[in-house]
Write a structure and sequence with these properties.
- By secondary structure, the chain is an alpha+beta fold.
- Helix content is 27%, strand content 35%.
- The protein has four domains: 41-48 and 305-378, conserved putative lor/sdh protein from methanococcus maripaludis s2 fold, CATH 2.40.420; 52-63 and 210-303, Efflux pump adaptor protein, beta barrel domain (Elongation Factor Tu (Ef-tu), domain 3, Beta Barrel); 71-96 and 176-201, RNA polymerase II/Efflux pump adaptor protein, barrel-sandwich hybrid domain (OB fold (Dihydrolipoamide Acetyltransferase, E2P), Beta Barrel); 98-173, Helix Hairpins (Orthogonal Bundle), CATH 1.10.287.
- The strands form three sheets. The protein has a six-stranded antiparallel barrel with strand order 2-9-12-11-10-13.
- The two termini are 39 Å apart.
Length: 395
C-alpha cells in the first residue's frame, strides 16, 4: 500500500514539473519599459488683443429731478394729475384759489390808470409853463416845479406797471405747472389743503427716467493706475471719459443697452478714498428705476500684443514673486520670474518675463525640476499608450 502511494506521488510531481517546463518554453518574457524624461503639458503663448474691464457697484439716479413747490400761498382747489403718471413740462398740476390774486391784479391796474391820468395832466402843465417862462409870465421856480411833477408822474406810472406785472405773475402762479417732463410721484397734499410760498415740503416730485444716470465709485489708486497705463501706451483709449459701460441688474441679468462714461468727480472722498464716476444709459422702456443697485462693467481700454498666462501655470516663490515654469533650450525646465498686472478671466496678464512663443508648463509641474530635461506635449493631450502585448507563441 505504501509503495502504491509513493508511486502516485512521484508521478504527480513529475507531471507538474513537465507542465511548468512546457509553459515556460511557450511564453516569452515581456521587455521592460525604458525610462525617459517625464512628460509635461505645455501651452505656447501667443499675443492677443485683450479688452480690459472693471466691475464696480453703483446706484441709478434720474437724469432730471424737480420738486414741485408753490410760489404763492393759498388753498388748493383741485389736483389735476394722476399719481405715478407721465406729465409734460408746462402741464397744470394744482390749481390754487385765484380769487384774491385776481382782485390784487384789478387793483394794480386801477392804480396804473390813475397814475397815467396824473401823468397826462402833469405833462400838459409842464408844456404850458415851458412856453410861459419864455415871456416871463411864470417864474422859473414854477416851471421847475412843473417839470419835477411831470417826472414824478412818469415814475408813478412805471411803478404801477410793475405792480400790475407782479399781480399778473402771482395770479399765474396759482396754476402750479410741471417744470420738467417726466414721471410724477405721489402727492403730499389733497384738495382743500393750505399751502405757502416756497414751503419746505414739496407737493410732488417729478423724475425724468430716460436717460438714466448710474453713479459708481472707484478707488483713487485704481484711477491713477488707469491713467498711468493710458499715458504709458499700455492701454489704447482716447480718454477715460469715452469708455463704454455695461450694466448687470440686481437679479444678475444683463441690461440690454450700453451706456457711456460721462465724467468723474474732481474730489476724492476722504472717508473712503474713492472717486465717483457717472455713466449715462438710455432707458426707453424704463427698466431702470431711481435708486436701483446695479453693477457697472466699465471698458478701461484694450491691450495689443497682450501675453495671457493661465493661472494654473503661475506659482509664487518664497519672495512672493510670480513664477512660471518654461520649457527652454535643450528641452530643459527654466523658472521665469514674471510681472503680472491683473486677471483676465482665468488668465494672468503678464507685462514682463514672458514673450510670444514661450512654452509654459501647465501640467506636471511637480515633475518639472529646474534644469531637468522634460518631454513637452500639448496641454490636454492624452498620454501616449504602450503597444499591446503580443499573443503567446505556442510550441
Amino acid at each position: 500500500m505504501r509503495q502504491i502511494t509513493c508511486t502516485r506521488l512521484m508521478a504527480a510531481t513529475l507531471l507538474l514539473a513537465t507542465g511548468l517546463t512546457v509553459t515556460a518554453c511557450g511564453n516569452k518574457q515581456a521587455p521592460m519599459p525604458q525610462s525617459g524624461p517625464p512628460e509635461v503639458g505645455i501651452i505656447t503663448l501667443q499675443p492677443q488683443t485683450v479688452a480690459l474691464t472693471t466691475e464696480l457697484p453703483g446706484r441709478t439716479s434720474p437724469h432730471l429731478i424737480a420738486e414741485v413747490r408753490p410760489q404763492v400761498g393759498g388753498i388748493i382747489k383741485k389736483r389735476l394729475f394722476t399719481e405715478g403718471s407721465d406729465v409734460q413740462a408746462g402741464q397744470v398740476l394744482y390749481q390754487i384759489d385765484p380769487a384774491s390774486f385776481e382782485a390784487a391784479l384789478a387793483s394794480a391796474r386801477a392804480n396804473q390808470a390813475r397814475a397815467e391820468a396824473t401823468l397826462g395832466s402833469a405833462r400838459l402843465k409842464a408844456e404850458r409853463y415851458q412856453d410861459l417862462v419864455k415871456i416871463k409870465a411864470v417864474s422859473q421856480q414854477d416851471n421847475d416845479e412843473a417839470n419835477a411833477a411831470l417826472k414824478q408822474a412818469e415814475a408813478d406810472v412805471a411803478a404801477t406797471k410793475a405792480a400790475v406785472e407782479t399781480a399778473r405773475i402771482n395770479l399765474a402762479y396759482t396754476r402750479i405747472t410741471a417744470p420738467i417732463s417726466g414721471r410724477i410721484g405721489r402727492s403730499s397734499v389733497t384738495d382743500g389743503a393750505l399751502v405757502t410760498a416756497s414751503q419746505a415740503t414739496a407737493l410732488a416730485t417729478i423724475q425724468q427716467l430716460s436717460p438714466m444716470y448710474v453713479d459708481v465709485t472707484q478707488s483713487s489708486a485704481e484711477l491713477l493706475k488707469l491713467k498711468q497705463n493710458l499715458a504709458s501706451g499700455l492701454l489704447n483709449k482716447g480718454g477715460v471719459n469715452q469708455a463704454k459701460v455695461k450694466l448687470v441688474l440686481e437679479d444678475g441679468s444683463p441690461y440690454p443697452l450700453p451706456g457711456n462714461l460721462k465724467f468723474s468727480e474732481v474730489t476724492v472722498d476722504q472717508s473712503t478714498g474713492s472717486v465717483t464716476l457717472r455713466a449715462i444709459f438710455p432707458n426707453p422702456k424704463q427698466i431702470l428705476l431711481p435708486g436701483m443697485f446695479v453693477r457697472a462693467i466699465i471698458e478701461e481700454g484694450t491691450v495689443n500684443q497682450a501675453i495671457l498666462v493661465p493661472q494654473r501655470g503661475v506659482t509664487r516663490n518664497p519672495k512672493g514673486e510670480a513664477v512660471a515654469m518654461v520649457v527652454g533650450a535643450e528641452e530643459k525646465v527654466e523658472p521665469r520670474v514674471i510681472k503680472v498686472l491683473r486677471t483676465v478671466g482665468d488668465n494672468w496678464l503678464a507685462s514682463e518675463g514672458l514673450k510670444a512663443g514661450d512654452r509654459v508648463i501647465l501640467e506636471g509641474i511637480q515633475r518639472a525640476r529646474p534644469g531637468t530635461p522634460v518631454k513637452a506635449v500639448p496641454f490636454g493631450a492624452k498620454p501616449a499608450e504602450g503597444k499591446p502585448a503580443q499573443p503567446a507563441e505556442k510550441k
